Amino acid sequence: MARSNTGIKGIYVALEDSLQRDALLVLGPRRQPPVPARTANSHTSISIQTALGFTILESNDYVEAVQKLGPDIVIGLADYEYNKRPGVKRLDSMGDRTLTWTQDMLAGIKDDKYGSSDTAFFAPLLPIEAGQQSYYLGILKRELSDRVSGWTIFDPASLDVLPEDMRHLPRLALTEIRGPHDILDHIALGVDIVIPSFIGDATDAGLALTFIFPSPQNPQDRNRLPLGVDMWSEKYVADRGPIVEACECYTCNNHHRAFIRHLLDAKEMLAWALLQVHNHHVMDVFFAGIRQRMSDGRFEIDRDMFHQNYESELPASTGQGPR
Fold this sequence. Notes:
By secondary structure, this protein is of the alpha/beta class.
């Protein structure tokens, strides 16, 4: 259903999870946002959570997986632990470990035994000061720049330390995106690719997204517009209108609010499937608007207007998710 009724053209898949090869495949070692690991990384591995619990992912095992799976883009291993502040001694080793894993990965991609040579490698940019990863970045610039296709960042503030000769490469952010405001701010800082995991969270909560970019101008109404609506609300029990007026998604063209509300109340998985189709369509239109306004040279103006016109957070859900 999502393939037929949305403009989704790419999928981020963690090695922790199963794979689907029906779109551009971006392969990373962890889910996004990641689940904090219980154990620290070692010189040869990182700690991850799989369906069977926490385990370690050896660098050579990750290389082998990339060789066999042949993703379009692979995220390099980084000696970075989510939600943990590294100690002084740890800072000294983060760049060295990441460099070793990067060299292993690039050597593995070059080995086209499994047809992985076409995989684009996005090098990690560690969220630490430039001096603490200067040797790592120096090797990338002097010896590996022709083999690096993009950057993976964990903090947009770290973009300032990018080598000048490699600033033109695309930047993919593995950061927490909590809503459309974060997407706009990331783009303004120079990020090219984001993974908006909040879409799935909103769908699970029974929320239908309603925002557009550029935002509608309504100078007579000082109230901020909601980013979405809670489809669990009792006011939709007998509402036969579409989720969003003039929305062209499959859900809004074929079903009404009362039907979605009934499905949610009955715990029918179709409810969340229909909401997911609608929410992805909203994101399709949102990104199309961003591209158009950037082309018109109005992105910054419209970004400020969006921040002013829309509420800062998604509405709270009054129901329960499917799981």
